[in-house]
Design brief:
alpha/beta, Topoisomerase, domain 3, single chain, 3 domains, Rossmann fold
Length: 589
């Protein structure tokens, strides 16, 4: 009766908070067995509050100079505190990049001792690792729902094995067991997998369902070259990931710079959108991953306690030490014997060699006799309580929204501090806006796409610009409306011009770009309440006939202005010359 009441209570908690229910089940069903049978010393330290409450984590692995840190910068929109990028092995630490109110770097020794952070179990790796681990905090919307783990590049030879001062593979294994996604990054010119890199991938291979591969800098290859590179990569991966399933490989150039060759641009954009969509959905999938990891841990715990209980029962009255050594040597055969007599699956047993090394450090006689009530409680959790927990996951996932990754998110045609270059004046762009025939004060997505693509910016940048510009509205409901109004269009044009001028796009829409009520009223009555241009703008910006190269006579005749001329005028305005616009006129003629 008490057991049923506890089950009902746990089930009720499941529907309110999955993490709290998992913590309760772990402390009551699993932790006592783990403590009594040495599970923490053999397999994994005890789980903490932070392990259950942590946001999803993404681990990046790769050789040096393949673009790991540059990818993080590309994803976040700016450098994270402590970042160094260069052709040589510059990232010499493990960086956990998480959300904070301001930029801050927390040294590893302090971060490992902070119970609010999910890194306290790393204390067992010693000071040598703590000196090579930092937590980097920054205010970024993406990090509100995700933590990124940037790692040092894998070296070759003795440098990897000796110079580190800590077991690199052990650290990778620790993170791989706890993260939600593992990104292994390759460079098109660095496809070889050294013995050291092979060991690192072996450490992560036990979490094969989390692994995704990035083939970076693919814009350096022509299509035939890329086919050969992809084939070579898959052959190399098969040597390590020896499974019938094909590892997902994302192909592209994961940074903000223009492509060196746009021959495969549509493919790169499709691959990027798929990758960013996967990352954006991690918060929704995080609860499922935690439940899955807890079930794996519980099944391993069940095998562990049954095995040690069986080995303990086989010890004689005298000569226990000699018999223990004999049993350890006979472990491969004992696996089958224990599995058959205790009703266990051989697939849940740890590798024989691993378990033999661990058993050499313990004494079988120190473990207590397995109590039936404790193993029955664990069985009940696996067979009854965990399925009920899984049934609540769809409802739990509805509490989370996709991450606002500016490279992807809401549907668009493209899949800093406030400064003068972020000030918006819609009158600069009214003529161009109206020349494309807005309907009910809004331009459709197709027309806006054509205008913005005339800037020749990569689609990832245009997508970020679109997402920011759509937020430039007093009414949040208008963010989902079709197309853009004049103010949003002006914000988009301003951001396009800034990007053409090599200015960094903001990660969030600056408040200066959000219209006030008076500015909206001025837009509705442009003749009675004209907007004044900023006094420091160049004279040509005030001339309607030169706005994005749109002559007055074309507008008067209701003809669409040339897209080539609009793009050329934008480039000319960014460089202060008129040659680009003149070239466009010659092409048009």
């Amino acid at each position: 009766m008490n057991g049923n009441a506890a089950t009902m209570k746990a089930t009720a908690e499941t529907f309110n908070n999955t993490s709290d229910c998992m913590k309760k089940l772990y402390k009551e069903r699993m932790l006592p067995l783990e403590s009594q049978f040495g599970f923490h010393s053999c397999h994994s330290p005890a789980m903490t509050e932070a392990d259950f409450n942590a946001v999803p984590m993404v681990l990046l692995i790769g050789q040096y100079s393949v673009g790991k840190s540059t990818f993080v910068k590309h994803l976040l929109g700016r450098d994270y505190p402590g970042l160094r990028i260069g052709p040589e092995p510059t990232t010499d630490k493990f960086f956990a990049i998480c959300h904070g109110s301001h930029d801050q770097v927390i040294p590893g020794a302090a971060a490992i001792m902070d119970p609010k952070l999910p890194y306290t179990q790393l204390v067992g790796l010693g000071n040598a690792f703590a000196e090579r681990f930092d937590v980097s905090k920054m205010n970024c919307p993406i990090l509100e729902g995700m933590t990124l783990i940037d790692t040092p590049g894998v070296l070759s030879g003795e440098k990897q094995r000796i110079s580190r001062g800590y077991l690199f593979e052990a650290v990778v294994k620790w993170f791989a067991d706890r993260v939600d996604c593992i990104l292994i990054i390759f460079d098109v010119s660095k496809l070889d997998i050294s013995d050291e890199f092979h060991k690192v991938m072996e450490a992560a291979k036990t979490n094969a369902n989390k692994i995704h591969v990035l083939l970076n800098k693919a814009d350096r290859c022509s299509t035939p070259q890329l086919m050969r590179v992809y084939g070579a990569l898959m052959w190399n991966l098969h040597r390590v990931m020896d499974t019938p399933e094909i590892t997902r490989v994302y192909i592209g150039s994961f940074w903000d710079e223009p492509l060196q060759s746009d021959e495969n641009k549509p493919l790169f954009e499709h691959e990027e959108n798929e990758l960013y969509s996967h990352l954006a959905q991690l918060p929704k999938q995080s609860s499922g991953r935690k439940v899955n990891d807890m079930i794996k841990r519980a099944r391993l715990l069940k095998v562990h306690v049954h095995l040690l209980d069986y080995l303990r029962d086989m010890l004689p009255m005298f000569g226990k030490e000699e018999k223990q050594q004999e049993l350890i040597l006979q472990l491969p055969g004992l696996y089958k014997e224990v599995a058959s007599k205790r009703g266990l699956s051989l697939g849940d047993f740890p590798p024989v060699e691993f378990m033999q090394r661990k058993l050499l450090t313990v004494s079988f006689k120190q473990f207590p006799k397995l109590e039936k009530r404790m193993i029955d409680a664990l069985d009940h959790m696996l067979s009854v309580e965990m399925p009920k927990l899984c049934s609540a996951l769809p409802m739990e996932s509805k509490k989370f929204k996709d991450l606002e990754i500016l490279h992807v998110g809401c549907a668009t045609p493209f899949g800093g501090s406030i400064d003068d270059h972020l000030r918006v004046n819609p009158e600069e762009h009214r003529e161009l806006f109206e020349s494309f025939g807005p309907i009910n004060g809004r331009l459709g997505a197709d027309k806006l796409k054509e205008i913005m693509e005339g800037s020749q910016l990569p689609k990832s940048a245009l997508h970020r610009i679109w997402t920011l510009a759509k937020k430039a509205s007093l009414n949040p409901d208008e963010e989902d409306a079709e197309g853009m109004d004049l103010w949003q269009f002006s914000v988009a044009m301003k951001l396009v011009q800034n990007k053409v001028n090599n200015k960094t796009l903001p990660t969030q829409l600056p408040s200066a770009m959000v219209p006030t009520a008076s500015e909206i009223k001025a837009l509705e009555n442009p003749k009675s309440v004209p907007l004044e241009l900023p006094g420091d703008l160049p004279e040509k910006a005030k001339a309607p006939e030169e706005t994005f190269g749109t002559p007055t006579n074309l507008v008067a005749e209701n003809k669409r202005p040339s897209l080539q001329r609009a793009a050329a005028a934008m480039a000319a305005e960014s460089t202060g010359t008129s040659s680009a616009a003149e070239d466009a006129e010659e092409v048009e003629a």
